[in-house]
């Protein structure tokens, strides 16, 4: 038993060297494998979630993300929707738009966004809209996040 | 009323996620065995139920729902602060490993913790509060909250099993220190909520 | 317990070969500054490995290199940030774009949300860019298998700050530290895990990480971020600079870091550990006094083991006057008088150290050479 344990110990210790090498040599392979096997992705609370609607505005785009309600278990009763405007160089000085994030053909909120000042005001057209969470600079544009109430709950 | 129970069942995990930062360090900090932890959980849940029923009363009382929601920041901010102070107190006081009987004799702390987590920041509770505000009959309103409480309570049952680790003295210290850290965060959150309101 | 020079040289050759492959990938860079930097870094790593093997002193040379890596990491990281972003401050645009490099310290906080929601609560990228989330997870998994909590002394690119500051004074000004403080990393871990899960945000990064002071931090645009800034600056000054200087201990690593506590668990599955030969030990207490991470106490020494928090830095091994403390491979006899376990551990540990730290030293040297020759860090 002692001798077997000793042999196993030395074998595992020696194995540590190829494992260390494989970690670096196979980094890309293992990373992609990890993502493919687990389906892990960045939380939509961080990146705003997937873009589900792109509206061409003649020179610039309004990109509407999937509303985010993801909770630790199921959905939260409050979430947000992120809307981006890009590219920056083609944005008007003030963006005034109606946004229909749930694609029911009716505007959910009206927004007036001052591109230079990075500030925005919204007017609710849908009782699900709670308030403006914030207005942000993007690398190549502007974005807002609007708090929503989850009507599925 | 079964709707309240299912609402509780559906959102119990969220309740658990919100209450665990308070309850888990507390249970670890008490360093009790599993039966004692269930007694503590019972008191905690009793406190939660009391909090729910109190708010059922408020929800039923005409007009109070709206005034509470209007001063939500102030009220919940204050509750956060009270909770933080309680957690700081429980983490700094000396505890002894008492038996089940003695523990039941002093139910104040877990009961109070339960009460304030119950009426506090738990999002499903706020949802239940909204639902219950439309119920006209006080008895029905109370029953709705009671059923909601039962639905959520199921998810708390495994927590006292941390008592299986009570032989590790260090877990008791870890629980107390963690409660202190979480309390500081809640204190800050409470102050900001009050400041923001 | 050292090795004869020829034998040490022979044992260094395979490492020198692997280092050459890692640092050049078969070809020296074209730019002169980068080429000189690679050659200098390669020489430094090769010489240090030889010294570790030849002298029998693990801690002495590892600690020097470990400190250099931490300083170079921060230097090159900040220089790179200023080059591409113009500032150390992380803007909301960077956060929304997922441009934040992922770091191992956040791993414990993301596990529960990852398990329950299959999402990572960190504003980085899964596969793209520098320090992507998946690549750091793979790196951590590999290192945990090979080193256990040895990560904290061989792979962590922040630990060298604590280590460096703890070595500045010859004698400690604060000698008595209550044992109960060693529970704090576990408490921070518990609080961070629970609050990260409850808020679905990387609580440790936002509120507690001291190393934001020497890497990147969120641009102050609100009262909340101002409070967070005051906290991380205070923690860095207190835990990483002042207390290590006063105590000669790695205070941040030993008494605060939640990742360190979490990483302690990996010591259980790692084949290497540090053992005390109780027959040889005279209970002089030097190892307990000198351990930088509070990983030895009289009870554990009596049992011939370190505590679970051992970082395998080699300080106790170097300092034991009777050679009673040794690197050990689980399943084998304790203190056979052979250096095999230490050498077998040194190889993979040094590979991680050089693979992680090598590029940081190369970048820093290249920046400095650029500065010396062209008057600008960026050439």
Question: Can you describe what's shown?
Answer:
The complex is a heterotrimer of chains A (about 150), B (about 200) and C (about 375). Chain A is α+β, with helices and mostly antiparallel strands and about 150 residues long. Chain A contains 3 helices and 10 strands, in the order ααβαβββββββββ. In chain A, strands 2, 3, 4, 5, 9 and 10 form a 6-stranded antiparallel sheet that branches. A 3-stranded antiparallel sheet of chain A has the order 6-7-8, with no helix packed on it. In chain A, a hairpin with a 4-residue loop joins β4 and β5 (about 75-85). Chain B has about 200 residues and is mostly helical. Helices cover about 80% and strands about 0% of the residues of chain B. Chain B has helices spanning about 1-30, 35-60, 65-70, 70-90, 100-105, 110-120, 125-130, 140-155, 170-195. In chain C, α2 (about 30-55) packs antiparallel against α3 (about 60-85). With about 375 residues, chain C is mainly α. The longest helix of chain C is centred in the C-terminal third of the chain and has 35 residues, at about 340-375. Chain C is globular. Chains A and C meet through α1, α2, β1, α3 and β9 of A and α4, α5, β2, α6 and α17 of C.
Considering the chains and any ligands shown, give keywords for the structure.
heterotrimer; A: 153 residues; alpha+beta; six-stranded antiparallel β-sheet; B: 197 residues; mainly alpha
């Amino acid at each position: 038993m002692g001798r077997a344990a000793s042999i196993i110990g030395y074998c595992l210790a020696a194995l540590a060297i190829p494992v260390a090498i494989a970690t670096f040599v196979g980094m890309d392979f293992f990373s992609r494998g990890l993502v493919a096997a687990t389906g892990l992705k960045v939380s939509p609370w961080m990146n705003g979630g997937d873009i589900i609607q792109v509206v061409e505005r003649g020179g610039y785009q309004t990109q509407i993300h999937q509303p985010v309600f993801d909770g630790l278990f199921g959905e939260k009763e409050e979430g947000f929707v992120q809307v981006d405007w890009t590219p920056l160089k083609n944005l008007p000085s003030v963006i005034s738009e109606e946004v229909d994030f749930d694609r029911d053909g009716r505007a959910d909120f009206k927004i007036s966004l001052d591109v230079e000042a990075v500030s925005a005001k919204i007017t609710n057209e849908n009782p699900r809209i709670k308030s403006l969470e914030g207005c942000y600079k993007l690398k190549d544009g502007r974005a807002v996040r609007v708090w929503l109430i989850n009507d599925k709950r | 009323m079964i709707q309240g129970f299912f609402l509780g069942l559906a959102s119990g995990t969220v309740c658990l996620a919100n209450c665990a930062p308070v309850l888990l360090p507390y249970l670890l900090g008490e360093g009790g065995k599993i039966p004692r932890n269930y007694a503590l959980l019972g008191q905690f849940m009793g406190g939660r139920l009391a909090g729910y029923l109190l708010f059922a009363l408020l929800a039923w009382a005409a007009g109070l729902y709206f005034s509470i929601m209007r001063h939500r920041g102030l009220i919940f901010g204050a509750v956060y602060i009270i909770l933080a102070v309680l957690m700081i107190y429980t983490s700094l006081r000396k505890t002894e490993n008492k038996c089940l009987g003695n523990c039941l004799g002093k139910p104040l702390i877990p009961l109070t913790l339960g009460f304030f987590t119950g009426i506090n920041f738990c999002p499903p509770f706020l949802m239940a509060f909204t639902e219950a505000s439309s119920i006209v009959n006080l008895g029905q309103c109370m029953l709705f909250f009671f059923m909601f409480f039962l639905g959520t309570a199921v998810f708390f049952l495994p927590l006292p099993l941390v008592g299986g680790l009570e032989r590790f003295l260090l877990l008791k210290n870890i629980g107390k220190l963690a409660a202190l850290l979480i309390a500081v965060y809640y204190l800050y959150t409470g102050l900001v909520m009050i400041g923001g309101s | 317990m050292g090795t004869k020079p020829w034998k040490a040289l022979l044992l260094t050759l395979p490492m020198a070969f692997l280092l050459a492959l890692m640092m050049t990938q078969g070809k020296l860079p074209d730019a002169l500054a980068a080429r000189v930097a690679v050659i200098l870094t390669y020489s430094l790593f090769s010489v240090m490995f030889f010294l570790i093997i030849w002298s029998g002193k693990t801690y002495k040379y590892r600690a020097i290199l470990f400190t250099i890596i931490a300083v170079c990491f921060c230097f090159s990281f900040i220089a790179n940030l200023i080059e591409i972003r113009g500032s150390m401050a992380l803007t909301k645009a960077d956060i929304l774009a997922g441009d934040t490099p992922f770091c191992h310290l956040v791993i414990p906080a993301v596990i529960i949300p990852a398990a329950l929601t299959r999402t990572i609560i960190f504003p980085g990228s899964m596969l793209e860019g520098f320090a992507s989330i998946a690549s750091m997870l793979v790196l951590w998994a590999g290192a945990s298998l090979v080193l256990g909590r040895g990560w904290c002394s061989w792979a962590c690119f922040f630990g060298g700050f604590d280590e460096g500051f703890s070595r500045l004074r010859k004698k400690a000004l604060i000698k008595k530290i209550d044992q109960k403080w060693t529970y704090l990393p576990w408490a921070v871990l518990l609080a961070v895990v629970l609050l990260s899960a409850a808020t679905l945000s990387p609580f440790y990064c936002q509120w507690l990480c001291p190393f934001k002071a020497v890497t990147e931090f969120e641009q102050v645009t609100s009262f909340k971020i101002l409070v967070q800034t005051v906290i991380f600056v205070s923690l860095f000054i207190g835990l990483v600079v002042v207390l290590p200087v006063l105590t000669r201990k790695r205070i941040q690593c030993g008494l605060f870091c939640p990742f360190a506590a979490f990483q302690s668990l990996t010591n259980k599955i790692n084949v290497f550990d540090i053992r005390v030969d109780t027959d040889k030990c005279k209970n002089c207490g030097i190892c307990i006094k000198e351990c930088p991470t509070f990983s030895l106490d009289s009870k554990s020494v009596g049992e011939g083991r370190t505590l679970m928090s051992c970082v395998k830095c080699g300080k106790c091994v170097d300092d034991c006057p009777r050679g009673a403390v040794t690197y050990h491979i689980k399943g084998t006899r304790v203190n056979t008088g052979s250096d095999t376990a230490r050498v077998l551990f040194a190889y993979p540990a040094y590979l991680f150290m050089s693979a992680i730290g090598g590029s940081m030293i190369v970048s820093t040297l290249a920046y400095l050479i650029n500065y010396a020759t062209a008057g600008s860090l960026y050439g």
